[in-house]
Amino acid sequence: MPKQSPDRITIRRPDDWHLHLRDGAMMEAVTPLSAAHFARAIIMPNLIPPVITGAQAGAYRDRILAALPEGSDFQPLMTCYLTEDTDPDDLARAYEDNIITAVKLYPAGATTNSASGVSDFDKVRPVLERMADIGLPLCVHGEVTDPNIDIFDREAVFIDKVLKPIRKKVPDLKVIMEHVTTENAVDYVRDSRSNLAATITTHHLIINRNHILAGGIKPHYYCLPVAKREKHRIALVAAAISGDKRFFLGTDSAPHTDANKLLPCGCAGCFTAINTMSCLAEVFDAAGAMDKLENFTSLAGPRYYGLAPNEDTITLIKGEPAIYPDHVDTADGPVTVFDPGFPLHWRVA
Ligand code: DOR
Ligand code: ZN
What we know:
Substrate binds at residues 20-22, 46, 141, 224, 256, 268. The structure is a single chain. By secondary structure, the chain is an alpha/beta fold. It has one domain: TIM Barrel (Alpha-Beta Barrel), CATH 3.20.20. The chain has helices at residues 24-37, 54-66, 88-96, 125-134, 154-169, 183-191, 209-213, 230-240, 258-261, 276-286, 293-305; strands at 3-5, 8-12, 16-19, 40-43, 75-81, 100-105, 138-140, 175-177, 196-200, 247-249, 313-318, 327-328, 335-336, 346-348. The strands form 3 sheets. Strands 3-4-5-6-7-8-9-10 form an 8-stranded parallel β-sheet. A 4-stranded antiparallel β-sheet has the order 1-2-11-14, with helices on one face. A two-stranded antiparallel ribbon has the order 12-13. Helix 2 (54-66) links the parallel strand 4 (40-43) and strand 5. Bound molecules: (4S)-2,6-dioxohexahydropyrimidine-4-carboxylic acid (DOR) and zinc ion. (4S)-2,6-dioxohexahydropyrimidine-4-carboxylic acid binds at residues 20, 46, 111-112, 141, 223-224, 252, 254, 267-269. The site of zinc ion has 5 residues, from loops.
């Protein structure tokens, strides 16, 4: 149980079940920032070129470990990027050797660096069946890419057209529907009996589509899946604070330089690695649900992945608004930090 008073709470150390660390200079700048609060993170494989094989995942893990500050015990939990040519034996070996924790499914063209993703889901069925056999989880970017489907409907259509058929054909596959953004997804996860959970990002608990588009376009709020109507944000908050073990934190913190965000065709992603715990505490406190924060950030995720929760703890304190930098400098250029649009009274002690 969390130790709690109105202005102080101690919870098990959190994990981030969906994180982009990139590579090179960007990785070096952002990795220590996630490691400051989080014990573990599921690392997204959408590099250029993507991390497809077990050997590539192992090499990427070594580069991440080398970017950690002295003495950090942060554990990157690696993923392989599923393609139509993925070799099931390679994945099985990497899982057995503890190199990967999950596999990532991007529908081809759905988001940043997803061109090598899956177009024909029948082609990956043998891989999915093998994963189900050995208990290797599938993390899913749940959006269809059909240009005829409205971008605000792409998650709901994905559930009906892609995810339901996959789960019907491979019922033992352990699935994580990542960064859910709709009431439809929340309901679908709630109604499922087993082998389905969802991550929710920090930013989708805070912004709706008006924040992106009303009163001038805000590129720093543009991410994928794009934030939806307010009723969907409310459904996400309700799921996050419910204590339901099938919903847990995956920040999807996705750093892009300002130069790449502020383009006529700017990149998708919100960078929340530094202020996520403050933002979440604010959201949970406003909902009168501080007692459910630990489940969301520190318990439900490891439980679904079959891992033990972290032994160590963090303490959050409420007081004068915490000051975060508005951007982080990297050798590639500045990266703007997510602005929740309200003061953050909670901070990690
Ligand atoms: O907003 C996003 N950014 N969504 C994704 O799915 C990918 C990510 C990225 O890699 O930048
Ligand atoms: Zn992501």
